[in-house]
Amino acid sequence: MDPENKWPESLPKLPRSLWRETTELPSFPRLAEDHTTEVAIVGGGITGITTAYLLTEAGYKVTILEGDKLLTGTTGFTTAKITAQHGLIYDTLVKHFGEEQALAYFRSNSEGMEWILQTAEKLGLSCGIRREDAYLYSPLGDDKTLKSLTEEFEAYRKLGLPGEWVDYVSLPMQVGGAIKLPGQARFHPLEYLKGLLQKVLDKGGIVYEHTVIAEKVESDGGLTLFTERGEHRIKCRHAVSASHFPFYDGGHLYFSRLHAERSYALAFEPETDYEGGMYLSAGGPKRSLRAVEWEGKRLVIAGGENHKTGQSKCTFGHFENLEVFAGELLGIRSIPFRWSAQDLVTVDQVPYIGQMSDDKEIYVATGFAKWGMTSGTLAARLIADQIMRRRNPYTELYDPSRFKANPGIRNFLAQNLNVAKELVEGKVEFTRRKLEELHPGEGAVVRHDGKRVGAYKDPEGGLHLVDRTCTHMGCECEWNASERSWDCPCHGSRYSYDGEVLEGPAVEPLAKVEP
């Protein structure tokens, strides 16, 4: 899309998450003094809040420390499918982890799903939970994808999973085949987590927002965490990193074993009745569908268009592609919401969950890919079990210190070669644009005083200039026009148009440049 063209009238000008726009959440203060607690949970998404719920129910003194506002990360921008059908995963797991661990993956996610449903019912939460069948499909005529889907179904059969092969789906599209997994679910994630959060508060749990935790940890007689600039200390017995990208690395080099992906979503009112079900394409480009109720209407969420963060030259185009897909499939009356999300993917496609090392009471949960509803819940249950010294059957599968030679080595090398390529290309790219060529509402890399800088001209004509060099490891950030952000193509750090950190691993803002 030509950046000088107007944003299409059919799409909302600014990204808005349906979940965020329809949920009133309480606000909490910034940590303003040293603090002592039993369990410090860094991160206020589904993993952090669920962990806090489990531990406060068990009588632990818990504090949640959120760097921004609760539920403004990936949890607030999900498609909110609750399912153990995670794309073409089980064939891969059988080959590289073995049948026993592949089955453990299915069971742990299925148990996470059922726990969500049972907890919502127990607490009487009105969060739009609906049982839905999930479908993983291959478009008609895509023989390569159909072959992969057939191999995936063979893994289902080998593991005894309750999947069914079907040749037709209720959507107005022809498919080469699909795997139907009955009895999965969808919900409103923030209304659900708002209910869990209230129970945490009722049990004496404490929450601080706008409190960024530094990587430094001291472990002499318990743990001591520090706020970003070392202003305040948090003393605790156990620390949980539920902050999407781990706040503490501990020598595990997570930045080299994870990569960040952006994906996109539209919530639209269809012209054709949507009969239900949750759908995901097995091949690319990724396409995801599910229904949601909003203001007495049934909307459909169309998602997909995955790419590595910072490695798409036209992020506008991803929303446009979803609009074309939705329009051709169901027709569109209106599109009240659009948003995007960031996910972290491990080198072997299985999340890293559990105690980082035997000598420190620090726990991590990261790398959920696109499946944070079940993965975040099972992570909370596993970590709570470990803190309470209870056996959990899934500890080995999700062990954060594991390294599978195949496909781990291949993906590790490919990922880090890609980082090296982006690092070099960002330093030598040629820039033609000039500062005075920017239009209001537009951002770009421009020449200014003989240097390449990141520039954004706000709708009032004010200029915001930043040094694009990522403060994590020095890669050059790229402009994301649809989100008005600077995105690092190496490890996925994201910054606002004026340089403030939106996503880690970076913790320091981009340097500002004088106009």
Examine the coordinates and then state which fold CATH places here, giving the name of the CATH topology of the largest domain. FAD/NAD(P)-binding domain
Largest sheet: 9 strands, mixed
Number of DSSP helical runs: 11
Rg, please? 23 Å
Molecular shape: globular
Count the strands? 27
Describe this structure in words.
Residues 430-515 form the Rieske domain. Pfam families: DAO, Rieske. Helix content is 28%, strand content 30%. The strands form five sheets. Strands 4, 5, 6, 7, 13, 14, 15, 16 and 17 form a nine-stranded mixed β-sheet that branches. A six-stranded mixed β-sheet has the order 8-3-2-12-19-18, covered by helices on one side. It has helices spanning 18-21, 46-57, 90-96, 99-123, 143-159, 189-202, 254-257, 316-330, 372-387, 395-398, 405-428, and strands spanning 35-36, 39-42, 62-65, 81-82, 130-139, 164-166, 175-186, 206-208, 213-218, 223-227, 233-236, 238-241, 258-270, 278-281, 287-294, 297-308, 332-346, 352-357, 360-366, 442-448, 451-457, 463-466, 478-480, 485-487, 494-496, 501-503, 512-513. By secondary structure, the protein is α+β, with helices and mostly antiparallel strands. It contains eleven helices and 27 strands.
Keywords:
globular, 3 domains, 27 strands, six-stranded mixed β-sheet, Rieske Iron-sulfur Protein, disordered N terminus, D-Amino Acid Oxidase, Chain A, domain 2, nine-stranded mixed β-sheet, 515 residues, alpha+beta
